[in-house]
Amino acid sequence: KMVKNVDSAAEQFLDANPQFAKQYYDVNFRPKVISDLLDNSRKTALDVSKFHDLTTVEESEVLFDLVRDIQDNLQMEKSVFNLMRHLSFMLRADRMSLFMYRQRNGVAELATRLFNVSKDAALDDCLVPPDSEIVYPLDMGIVGHVASTKKMVNVPVTSFYSEFVDELTEYKTKNALAVPIMNGKDVVAVMMAVNKLDGPHFTAKDEETLNKYLNFANLILRVFHLSYLHNCETRRGQVLLWSASKVFEELTDIERQFHKALYTVRAFLNCDRYSVGLLDMTKTKEFFDLWPILMGEVPPYDGPKTPDGREIIFYKLIDYILHGKEDIKVIPTPTPDHWALISGLPSYVAETGLICNIMNAAEDEFFQFQKEPLDDSGWTIKNVLSMPIVNKKEEIVGVATFYNRKDGKPFDEMDETLMESLTQFLGWSVLNTDTYDRMNKLENRKDIFQDMVMYHIKCRKDEIQNVLNTRERWGKEPDECEEEELQEILVKSEVLPNTKKSEILEFHFCDFDHSELDLVKCGIKMYYELKVVDKFHIPREVGAPFVFTAVCLSVSTIAQKRLTGFRTKRCGDVEKKDEYTGDLKRYYTDLECMAMVTAGFCHDIDHRGTNNLYQMKSGNPLAKLHGSSILERHHLDIGKTLLRDESLNIYQNLNRRQHDLVIHLMDIAIIATDLALYFKSRTMFQKIVDQSKTYENWNDWTKYMMLETTRKETAMMMTACDLSAIAKPWEIQSKVALSVAAEFWEQGDLERTVLEQNPIPMMDRNKAADLPKLQCGFIDFVCAFVYKEFSRFHVEITPMLDRLLNNRKEWNALKEVHEAKMAEIEAAKKAKEEETAGAKQASAAQSQSKTCTLS
Amino acid sequence: KMVKNVDSAAEQFLDANPQFAKQYYDVNFRPKVISDLLDNSRKTALDVSKFHDLTTVEESEVLFDLVRDIQDNLQMEKSVFNLMRHLSFMLRADRMSLFMYRQRNGVAELATRLFNVSKDAALDDCLVPPDSEIVYPLDMGIVGHVASTKKMVNVPVTSFYSEFVDELTEYKTKNALAVPIMNGKDVVAVMMAVNKLDGPHFTAKDEETLNKYLNFANLILRVFHLSYLHNCETRRGQVLLWSASKVFEELTDIERQFHKALYTVRAFLNCDRYSVGLLDMTKTKEFFDLWPILMGEVPPYDGPKTPDGREIIFYKLIDYILHGKEDIKVIPTPTPDHWALISGLPSYVAETGLICNIMNAAEDEFFQFQKEPLDDSGWTIKNVLSMPIVNKKEEIVGVATFYNRKDGKPFDEMDETLMESLTQFLGWSVLNTDTYDRMNKLENRKDIFQDMVMYHIKCRKDEIQNVLNTRERWGKEPDECEEEELQEILVKSEVLPNTKKSEILEFHFCDFDHSELDLVKCGIKMYYELKVVDKFHIPREVGAPFVFTAVCLSVSTIAQKRLTGFRTKRCGDVEKKDEYTGDLKRYYTDLECMAMVTAGFCHDIDHRGTNNLYQMKSGNPLAKLHGSSILERHHLDIGKTLLRDESLNIYQNLNRRQHDLVIHLMDIAIIATDLALYFKSRTMFQKIVDQSKTYENWNDWTKYMMLETTRKETAMMMTACDLSAIAKPWEIQSKVALSVAAEFWEQGDLERTVLEQNPIPMMDRNKAADLPKLQCGFIDFVCAFVYKEFSRFHVEITPMLDRLLNNRKEWNALKEVHEAKMAEIEAAKKAKEEETAGAKQASAAQSQSKTCTLS
């Protein structure tokens, strides 16, 4: 009792001397308190039950505990629970609750997370498990109001709020104080205190206290919320990147592509199970399915349809099971009573295109989900998120449905966003599966046309009998004959070389004098003379049809459409490759010879009678396919296509290395016939010739040349062959030149009529009289170099150069005759002009004569 | 003085009665202090300069300020600065600094963020701007050591650390205390105090103080760090989704696709500028470029190469400028001295495939970046992040280089991750641009083959002279003639109908007796008899070649490969569509008649002599292209291809609506010739016939029928025509049946040789004797229904049914003869069996006779 009095006196003194009291406190108490609070090692939680009065609580300790809680990465709910327990004591509130804000289907709602927290409560009793959540829409209740207005409310009497939760929980809410917890402008949660214990309602002071502690609650929830958002965004990025990785792996069909992507992202989806239903994309029915409906024989479809008017038919379901033992089920043509379809949700999504986020599926009124476990594991459908997979044309191609978020909570807006990103990506990627289909179709169409082309251009069985008359002689087809039997035919029919020197080896050989069949026979002979038939095991029943087909393609089939002269210019000359190789064979291998001769046969296959420039100007698909040397690459293409046909493949018995080389040489030889490339490479040819002069020893030179394909200058060889008509005797050259000119004039006509352009003089029929002048230019600027250098290279070629020079003289003489005539006309014109103006027109008409006089 | 004594007495009392003192404090002081601290409205920062002693500092207020700082979303640096200022006072440290941890190029480093914080410092003086950062590698200095070990260090003497920063800052570090700030297991920053003011070094107590405050620093940095990570991940997701949206918009080339994606994500990249260089993908040179090098004429390339061996050539640069006025520059074939290439960095990245993250570009020793401003805006290169764009084949297709992060800091590992996700996505998406190229190539190849097919199958100019002899008669080509001139030719050559009834209208018409040319003329005649030539303005110079081409394609070209009998079966019958339409024309429109006749001409174009099943089994591209009715869809395809050629398009003067209808009818008519569909729809045909019987009035029925294409039953009409040989006089039927059978046997032979399967009896040459039995079955199960129902439909058809039944009798008779013969043989065999075992084999051989006896 005495002590009490002394205490009372001291109290009076201290009350009277606040300055002293504060000083004493700062020195003696405060450091100790703060020091204790900051001590990291002191981990024991406060025993809140011992608090007896606000003023006696070591309040700071509570705060520091909170900071440590957050720092130690503890459960958000535990930290907030501790704070709320403390708050409910300070506010004298009977209970406090925390409601988390989230959105589903674009609609906000609040869900109980901590419920009925009182100062003596235990966390486990207050933490609401996901399946016991009470969910509030924002348009009802106190908490909904707080979340909508984002402002604190103090409700003295709850009569004007219909609290349906009270009925659920059999608890009467009399008054309440609730406050929103924000992250920037977004509501994260609502905290509510109900039923003031020591008064009729919460006071202004309670509001103040709650507001003060909000900072801490905010901080806790902010870290929690940011972690959650970060986790969701990270998963979203992963889902997109992994899907992309699969989608771009290869071009494939929609089923495979979707499956690869959906399987690879399974770990990021954070749900128990998901299924994808693929929709039939058929828009219009075939007449044989449509007519029975039109005739009233079959009832028309009256089920739901996609927004673009398709009947909703799931032709395949893929079911990904992640709970328990991982499994994938593929259900082709699932029946409508399959558990994944029977609810009607996928059809609804396919019909409306809406994203549907459903919680407590078993209790859903609109869709009837299976309430029983789906399998032996006892797993049941709880929460469902379903969305359409929509392609870039806005068509729904499928429906993806996700079941039961891993943590038991319903899917929220972040899940919606993540899954939507995935389905959006998948939907867009249908461009690739559509492309795959288109590509296959295109490839098949190309193959069909290619087959048709081969059918039409290949030497027919009856045609080959003109060369290999096996029916007559042996009573069977060539491919049924022994090689000896075929050989006998070739010898008997004088196709095979006899003792006298073959005519094709003569420089003056002219195919004008030969029938198509003769040319075919000459062609076959060339292979024999090169001695490659036996060496490379060219089957005789293949070689003959190959030469027949190639020759016909270069000559007759095309000639029908074009000028007969074309035949002379294009064919034959190349066959006389032998003419040159005759001497060059020393350093050309047999394989190289065969490649070049074959290239010769193929080098003008399917020529169009017009040049590369015309293909470009007329927008021919050839020009779109090949960037340069357009026709040459086409001749090569078709030549190789012939050689891919087993019945024409003269290379079929070559080994891999030989085959690659022979094809490579053909590539070079045929492309090289593009004169544009000749101008590129002619200085190089000159260098080779120069180099050859530095060798004194003929054998050393031969050895040196044999080492490297480049040195053999296949390209210039091809040019020399292609131009050889210019070095033929004048009778031949003059005929060939006219027929080539005629082909040019035909193109000139086409340029005028089709392209509506004026042709260059060389192709202008109206300038036909200039042919001799043009030929002189052609010799001077294009041909002379080739034969001059080749003669320097091999002296045996000199006769060709001589003939070229002779032809130059002939053309020049014609040119001079023409020029004299023109001068004469001009003079006459001038004279007449001075006489009458009427004579003018007549003279002009005469100068435009369409005839080219050659002699 | 007295007061002092009283104070002293009070002090003594309080010291002696701690229980009382604490109670008094709790009641009178603590609530006030805490209340002040929690007061949100009190925003004034603490004046740290007034602190004189730790014990007198209102320490809690500092802590609560910190919490508010974080909560108010203030700058991280400001919050930490406040904490450090307070700490430097408490630790008696001369200065404190904060170093942020980050990674670049996969290597960790620390960068000064807050430097030289003392108790009196101002934030602006301590906050290090990005371009003044000092960067520490982790393998040197105290802070590097702390970040590596993740442990606090107290360094009493710094001699054993080489502090290069001291030299930079002209400050002597004597002793230091440093601690790592963690986020989970990751270092986020290092905080360091240097030079203890009131002692030789920092004490254990200082370590304790620092540790205590670490909780707060951690929390601040954690929120900061999480926000940053969340922002980066969100941007990454956006970058991927937006890129995908563009990539999947359409198939296009690499330049366009990259540009679309790179442009659309610009806002998320958070940098001033970026450029993308596209690499030449050429792997091998053309021979004409290669040879000059091999010949030593051109020096070989000795610059850097990509890992897959390509020369590094940037053929295009796209430069995105986001600082100042947004702009995009496209630089085709940039020179190596372009500012974006001159540093050598893009080439280095293209060569090594490495990601290069460079800060302070101007001072980089390895790469020479332009130090001067790039443009008038004065913008210079500071930080650079460059990385390869790699496709799924692991080839580097381009290099993306990003300049100057928006906030001035160097690019960190999050930037590397984000940009890498983008370039990875772009690289993978090259599948689509490659596909685009392949697709165009394929399309062009298809077009080339299609052109070649058309060239080969189209009626030639000289061929059409057999029908329209315009050269002989008018001295010009058909397309140069007037319609009247052509008409005159047709009349004169008796192609056009004369007075007597046309032979083709007779049921017994048999094309066996007609030449190909006759059939062409008949075909042309049909269009005239239908009176559609003038009505639908079919140009005569188009109609004749069309019929010629279609007939030849269905008959002669194909017949070369197949049986002559084929010709009878397939061609001609359909031309006699008129036979039926003759009476049905009452409710068929002229347009419908023309469509059906044209469909008849096209319905067997390019038939392969084998059936649909064979196409499937042999893997023909036709079967890959068409899922059902394979050959029928092919006939339709080629027929339409013919009609797309202007010189064959008999529909060229129809209007849009007419054209669509006529094509639609052809679709139906030609597909309907698939017998598999006949079985599907024949009950429906019966229904139509039943319905027709319910009309008493013939005109009403006609009107009813005319309303709807379905009711006219084009499909069954086509079947009736296609099967008509079965209803021809016996002489014709027996010939046709044998030729059809011969075609089947040919397929059977192919099945045996090519597919290595046993054919069905119908196609088995060894079961030829069963033909009469098979024909009976064919009549009973396929044909009878058609003609029975058609006769019910139109009484005029009855003669066909009669002949069908007659043919049935004939076949049956043959069947019985054969069966009798077989029974006889069987009996003989049995008899012989009982005699000798040797006779057995002879009998079997006889029963396998290859000959089918018909009479």
UniProtKB/TrEMBL annotation, chains A, B:
Stated name of the protein: Phosphodiesterase
Domain PDEase: 482-818
Record family assignment: Belongs to the cyclic nucleotide phosphodiesterase family.
Residues that hold Zn(2+) 1 according to the record: 603-604, 722
Compositionally biased residues, Basic and acidic residues: 828-837
PROSITE patterns per the UniProt record, alphabetical: PDEASE_I_1, PDEASE_I_2
Chain residue ranges for the region called Disordered: 828-855
Catalytic EC class: hydrolase
Compositionally biased residues, Low complexity: 838-849
Phylogenetic classification of the source organism: Eukaryota, Metazoa, Chordata, Craniata, Vertebrata
Coiled-coil parts of chain: none
Keywords: Hydrolase, Metal-binding
GO MF term list: 3',5'-cyclic-nucleotide phosphodiesterase activity; metal ion binding
